[in-house]
């Protein structure tokens, strides 16, 4: 079976097999870039929404426990710092995911532009 003509992020050749007559696997097919972007976006939002909801619930419960004297103020302050750190990590993960997505889209565009330039150079 033929091999995908795309390159991985590390620059090495993609090892995915493709059907006869095809050049690209799903991950490298320029025509499917938008579909990949939508899929990644949906997956990321679902996970983040659950994590954020969980943090909000924990903070709400913590506030209620402090008000009812179930949890002391000093313990609550430490717990709040931990929850704040988790929130910052969620945001950092979002930024990294967004950067990776933009990098992938840029790579696809660069590959398409390079292919187009090569086609012009060879009289196509």
β-strand number:
0
How many alpha or pi helices?
2
Task: List unreliable stretches of 5+ residues.
Answer: none
Order of helices and strands: HH
Strand content: under 5%
Radius of gyration: 23 Å
Which structural class matches the secondary elements? mainly alpha
Give the distance, in angstroms, between the N- and C-terminal Cα atoms: 27 Å
Q: Mean pLDDT score, rounded?
A: 88
Shape: rod-shaped
The main sheet comes to: none
Helix percent band = 55-70%
Descriptive overview:
This protein has 124 residues and is mainly α. Helix content is 68%, strand content 0%. The protein has a domain at 33-106. Helix 1 packs antiparallel against helix 2 (73-121).
Summarize the structure.
This protein is an all-alpha fold and 124 residues long.
Index terms:
124 residues, mainly alpha, 2 helices, 68% helix
Write the layout of secondary structure elements.
Elements: H1 33-67, H2 73-121
């Amino acid at each position: 079976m033929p091999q995908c003509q795309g390159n991985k992020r590390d620059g090495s050749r993609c090892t995915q097999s493709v059907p006869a007559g095809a050049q690209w696997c799903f991950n490298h097919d320029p025509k499917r870039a938008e579909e990949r972007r939508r899929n990644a976006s949906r997956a990321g939002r679902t996970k983040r929404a659950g994590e954020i909801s969980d943090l909000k619930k924990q903070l709400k419960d913590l506030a209620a426990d402090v008000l009812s004297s179930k949890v002391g103020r000093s313990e609550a302050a430490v717990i709040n710092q931990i929850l704040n750190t988790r929130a910052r990590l969620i945001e950092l993960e979002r930024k990294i995911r967004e950067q990776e997505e933009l990098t992938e889209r840029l790579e696809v565009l660069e590959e398409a532009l390079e292919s187009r330039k090569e086609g012009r150079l060879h009289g196509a």
